[in-house]
Write a structure and sequence with these properties.
By secondary structure, the chain is α+β, with helices and mostly antiparallel strands. It is built from eight helices and five strands. A five-stranded antiparallel beta sheet has the order 4-3-2-1-5, with no helix packed on it.
């Protein structure tokens, strides 16, 4: 017999087996053939395994969407993973935004308030991008990989053994049917022998499948540890982002909240949580300078004396009640009863008028 004849006979045998089992399945559905039922414990284990597989896939896919919202990037990473090649490094959205901000700030001029603020925001966005990259790497290693290993490893083994169990059950039921139909003594003896063999094979396969399925509880325990790792990675990421933004907010608190548009009338600063501080936190350690905290301002407003202050930015007076300012000049400031909390009275020689406190830095 040549190899071609062997393959033809094997294909014919497989086709015959498939056809006979299809007929058997149909007869079971119609109630015309006997069906061996699995014990309740094994059925529960099978149901638990199937449920675990379905929800693990959903959680895994949605986590991938959370970590990488771009579907094209996910497809690219999947292709590289299947080819067992490292995906090319790409800049993420926060990093790209940060670079745009830095480039814009450099173009506008680092010495300008807006340009300096853009550069600081850009640097913070790039730090957030780095933290985001670390979150993706940590989550992929400690959370997604174990879930994927279960789907592509353990569950595939369970599915394979479950299919074998199904085939053994069909063989067992077919043997039972043949025994019922056997009439001659010799035929019955042969059918009984076949039934004993198929029953033994079925019981053995049921035990193998049961042992594998009982490992699902261990899988749940392992995935729980991985979930804790994922939550910890997220906590680290959000804590980093919060700290970065908090630091950025403190730095931006030193910038003026008003703006000038083509030398038009300036708009008075809008009160905010950060506008009560005169000067940036970075200047707090500068020798000879005092950053005006809310307490300093209260002291200044309650006392009848005056203080020297350095002007941080140019300011064009909006009307005759205000005093125009030039960056780096030193003026005298003092409080007037009833004046808005965001303003002080400034004096330069014979000139006097209201000045916004966010443009000032109190001196010793």
């Amino acid at each position: 017999m040549n190899i071609m004849d062997f393959n033809v006979k094997k294909l014919a045998a497989d086709a015959g087996t498939f056809l006979s089992r299809a007929v058997q399945f149909t007869e079971e559905k119609l109630g015309q053939a006997e069906k061996t039922e699995l014990d309740a414990h094994l059925e529960n284990l099978l149901s638990k395994a199937e449920c675990t597989k379905i929800w693990t896939e959903k959680i895994m896919k949605q986590t991938e969407v959370l970590l990488q919202p771009n579907p094209n990037a996910r497809i690219e990473e999947f292709v590289y993973e299947k080819l067992d090649r490292k995906a090319p490094s790409r800049i993420n959205n926060p990093e790209l935004l940060g670079q745009y901000m830095i480039d814009a700030g450099t173009e506008f001029g680092p010495g300008t308030a807006y340009g300096n603020a853009l550069i600081k925001c850009g640097e913070t966005q790039k730090r957030i991008g780095t933290a985001d990259r670390e979150l993706i790497q940590t989550s992929a290693l400690n959370f997604l990989t174990p879930l994927r290993n279960f789907i592509e490893g353990d569950y595939k083994t369970i599915a394979k053994e479950r299919k074998l169990l199904q085939n053994k059950r069909l063989d067992l039921d077919a043997a039972k049917t043949r025994l019922k139909k056997a009439k001659a003594a010799e035929s019955r003896a042969s059918s009984e022998q076949e039934l004993r063999i198929t029953q033994s094979e079925f019981d053995r396969q049921a035990e193998i499948t049961r042992l594998l399925l009982e490992g699902i509880s261990s899988t749940h325990a392992h995935h729980l540890r991985c979930l804790n790792d994922f939550v910890e990675a997220q906590m680290t990421y959000y804590a980093q982002c919060y700290q970065y933004m908090l630091d950025l907010q403190k730095q931006l608190g030193s910038f003026p909240s008003s703006y000038c548009n083509n030398n038009q009338t300036s708009v008075a600063p809008v009160p905010s949580a950060s506008s009560n501080v005169i000067g940036s936190s970075a200047l707090s350690s500068t020798s000879g300078l005092v950053i005006a905290s809310p307490t300093n301002l209260i002291d200044l407003k309650e006392c009848s004396g005056s203080r020297k202050a350095r002007v941080l930015y140019d300011y064009d007076a909006a009307n005759s009640s205000e005093l125009s300012l030039l960056a780096d000049e030193v003026i005298t400031v003092f409080s007037v009863v009833g004046m808005d909390s965001d303003w002080l009275m400034g004096e330069r020689g014979n000139q006097k008028g209201r000045v916004p406190i966010t443009y000032l830095e109190l001196l010793n």
